[in-house]
Amino acid sequence: MAGDRNEDGPKEGELLVCTVSNVKQNGAYVKLDAYEGLEGFIFIGEIASGWVKNIRGYVRDGQRVVCKVLRTKRRDRQTLDLSLKSVSEERKRDTLQAWKNDQRAIQLLKVLGEKVEWSEEQVSETEAELRSAYGSLYGAFEDAAGNPESLSDTGFEGDWIGVFVEMAVENIIPPFVEIRAVCEIQVGGPRGVEAIREALCAAETHADAENEVSVLCYYDGAPKYRVEIKAPDYKLAEKAWDDVSATITETIEKGEGTIIVTRE
Predict the structure, then answer these.
(1) Domain 177-263 has CATH 3.30.70.940
(2) Using CA of residue 79, residue 81, residue 84, residue 86, what is the dihedral sign?
(3) Structurally, what CATH architecture does the domain formed by 91-171 represent?
(4) From CA 134, how far away is CA 139, in angstroms rounded?
(5) Are 85 and 47 in contact (CB under 8 A)?
(6) pLDDT tens, 48-85?
(7) Would you list the DSSP string of 18-68?
(8) Taking each helix axis from N to C terminus, what angle separates 234-254 and 192-204, rounded to the nearest 10 degrees?
(9) Are 138 and 101 in contact, with CB atoms under 8 Å apart?
């Protein structure tokens, strides 16, 4: 399943996770983890910057590396020219993490398929649809962990969605959940501006440092004010939103003002 999803093949400049399969004196052959049946060759001059005295001091059989595609067309049409030295440590780290996330998501979807009794074809079709909708399979799980309505909102249907969301919440930890809203507020009289300021300041008191919940209010140009809430999970974010929206609404209405709240 993982090896069949990239039908167009690697692109020049793309970063690939590879496994070293055969180290030679003049370079190293690697298998492309995401492209079944394809391999790459790292010429010794692309192993590291400077003179490489002993290539085995840099790569070894079975080692997982991140390479940049230099050229995709060779005589055998199966082997790509790759570079190891062109990949910075930061990009290597990010690419490996993304690859690990993807492998984890593939396993989760496989388990889901077993739970809902899907065929291999159904699992593959759903994987392709999720990748198309979210950009990555892990992204689909991550979104579902942060927002249980994400799949339905995106147009997916079926009883499997509940199982997917449950698995996402149990296995995926999103970096944070963000809720944004625009409040159109109008308060007449000499204390109008002060009343709005009090309402927004009161809303920000619902921030919870202990649980890593932040609440910030911004002026977007009268009569619009923006509220942004960040929290480590969906439940904390929604609770904060309920408290914030209630506080702003009550404060404005007590000052005989009007408010229209729109979630983005």
Answers:
(1) no
(2) negative
(3) Orthogonal Bundle (1.10)
(4) 6
(5) yes
(6) 988 998 999 999 999 999 999 998 865 455 679 999 99
(7) EEEEEEETTEEEEEETTSTT-EEEEEGGGTSSS--S-GGGT--TT-EEEEE
(8) 160
(9) yes
Q: What residues contact 154, with CB distance under 8 A and at least 6 apart?
A: 133, 134
Q: Give the number of residues written for the chain.
A: 264
Q: CATH 3.30.70.1130 in the chain: give the residue spans.
A: 177-263
Q: Which CATH superfamily is domain 13-86 in?
A: Nucleic acid-binding proteins (2.40.50.140)
Residues 155-191 have pLDDT tens digits of 999 999 999 999 999 998 766 788 999 999 988 877 7
CATH 1.10.150.190 residue window(s) in the chain: 91-171
Provide the token pair at 133. 């909708």
Closest CA to 252 of 230, 229, 225, 228: 225
Is the whole-model pTM more than 0.85? no
Cβ-contact 154, 123 below 8 angstroms: no
Q: CA 48 to CA 57: how far, in whole Å?
A: 10
User: Of 34, 36, 41, which is closest to residue 98 (Cα–Cα)?
Assistant: 34
